[in-house]
Design brief:
Largest sheet: 7 strands, mixed
Order of helices and strands: HHEHEEEEEEH
Strand order of the largest sheet: 2-1-7-3-4-5-6
Helix content: 25-40%
Structural class: alpha+beta
Shape: globular
Radius of gyration: 16 Å
Strand content: 25-35%
Length: about 120
Amino acid sequence: MVTIQARKQRKTLFNLPNHRKQKQIVAHLSPELREKYGRRNMPLRTGDTVEVMRGEGEIIGFEGKISTIFTDERRIAIESLTMAKADEKQVSRKIHPSNVMITKLDLSDKKRRQKLETAKED
């Protein structure tokens, strides 16, 4: 970004096209995956297994699959990680991607698998 004004930086982030928003939803790989694939981080996808590293006390260490990715809000939802609303209704808890670590990748997509293999060879 060229400007240092916070309002213009926020405006730029809010008005990004969807393909650029998706690229900003990235998390670190676990040490085992980092050594295996030779990469530090990966874009998150639905189906990846993540572990919560930061946040409120009761959710730290929680591990589960990503159920939904909210690109507009830059947040993710993990299966069976919910919170109660005032009317006792359970809703999924939204977490920022920087607070999680990928422990298992969903490699059902051929392009994603090929990208990891070529990065590993380099």
